[in-house]
Write a structure and sequence with these properties.
The protein is of the alpha+beta class. It has helices at residues 5-29, 34-41, 78-90; strands at residues 48-54, 64-72, 95-98, 101-108, 124-131, 136-143. Strands 1-2-6-5-4-3 form a six-stranded antiparallel β-sheet. It is elongated, with a radius of gyration of 19 Å. The model has no long low-confidence stretch (mean pLDDT 93).
């Protein structure tokens, strides 16, 4: 039984569409997983929902920069803030504090070590910032 070339083209288009949809989903939600964030930042942040998402342009090499506005399901507790203050005081973390704003930033790949559980071969960056006693945070992330 021969398969029509039109059938093959339709199947190929559906496969490509499904794969691109999966990659877009993975890209959008990659850094909203609480376990991943805890491994990377060293702090358990509250669950969060994406409120706004700005998917940046992807270069021919696959580099991109995305921006997310997220809302915590609950305001980060005083215990979280105290943990962050201790980490910042140790000066062995990517966390900093400017006034009431906590900021974390990390880059890996291209000979920069990856956080535990992340792929050493991926060239990624991630940052998050939020004000103490706020339900809102901004995430910038991507590949470089």
């Amino acid at each position: 039984m021969l398969v029509s070339p039109l059938f093959l083209i339709v199947y190929l288009c559906l496969f490509v569409w499904g794969y691109v949809t999966y990659l877009d989903y993975e890209r959008k939600y990659y850094f909203t997983d609480e376990d991943r964030l805890e491994r990377i930042t060293g702090v358990r942040l509250p669950d969060m929902d994406i409120v706004e998402y700005d998917q940046g342009m992807t270069s021919i090499t696959g580099d991109y920069r995305d921006w997310l506005l997220v809302e915590f399901e609950k305001i980060p507790s005083e215990k979280v803030c105290q943990t962050l203050d201790i980490l910042i005081a140790s000066q062995k973390t990517g966390w900093i504090k400017r006034g009431d704003v906590y900021e974390f930033s990390i880059t890996w790949g291209n000979h920069f070590p990856a956080p535990i559980g992340e792929n050493e071969d991926e060239d990624r960056f991630f940052s998050i910032s939020f004000e103490a006693r706020s339900k809102w945070a901004v995430i910038e992330c991507g590949m470089w």
